[in-house]
Specification:
single chain, about 150 residues, 5 strands
Length: about 150
C-alpha cells in the first residue's frame, strides 16, 4: 500500500456517501455546513493545487452561495443528485460533481469521474495524482496513435 493510499483524505474520499437527491435536501446541507462554518473546512477544486489551510466562515459562505447558483443554473433538472455527503446532519466530507462533467457519477463504474469540488475537514491530497485514470485507458490512447 502506497503512502497516497493511506492519506486520511483519500481514505475518507473512498468512504460511504449518500446522494443529496432533492434541492430542499441541498438547502439543508448548506445550512448544516454554515452552522459549522468555523470548523476548519478545506475547499478543494479538483485539478487545482490542494489547499494547505482551511477557509474562514465568510469564504465558506461565499463558496456555498456561488456553487448553489452554479448547480441550479447548470444542472437543469427537478432533482439535485450531483452532491454527495458523508452525513447530511453532521457533514465532514462533501463531494460536488460538475454538472458539465457527470459521466457515470450516478451509477456504478470501475473508474467514476472525480468530483469538481470537495469540502472536507481533512486537508486534501491531489486527487488526480492519487487516482490516475485506469491503465487500460492509457494503453488504449497510446495504441490509438502508435505508429
Amino acid at each position: 500500500m502506497s503512502e497516497t493510499d493511506t492519506h486520511p483524505f483519500l481514505q475518507a474520499f473512498r468512504g460511504s456517501f449518500a446522494g443529496v437527491l432533492r434541492w430542499p435536501q441541498l438547502d439543508t446541507l448548506w445550512e448544516a455546513l454554515r452552522r459549522r462554518g468555523d470548523a476548519g473546512w478545506y475547499l478543494y477544486a479538483v485539478g487545482e493545487t490542494p489547499p494547505d489551510s482551511p477557509v474562514d466562515a465568510a469564504r465558506l459562505d461565499t463558496f456555498l452561495r456561488e456553487i448553489d447558483a452554479l448547480l441550479r443554473s447548470e444542472h437543469d433538472e427537478d432533482y439535485c443528485g450531483i452532491v454527495y455527503v458523508d452525513d447530511i446532519d453532521k457533514p465532514t466530507f462533501v463531494k460536488i460533481f460538475d454538472p458539465n462533467n457527470l459521466g457515470v457519477s450516478c451509477g456504478f463504474s470501475e473508474a467514476p469521474p472525480l468530483p469538481g469540488w470537495t469540502l472536507s475537514l481533512i486537508p486534501p491530497c491531489d486527487l488526480p495524482a492519487a487516482l490516475p485514470p485506469a491503465g487500460n485507458r492509457r494503453r488504449w490512447w497510446q495504441r490509438l496513435f502508435a505508429n
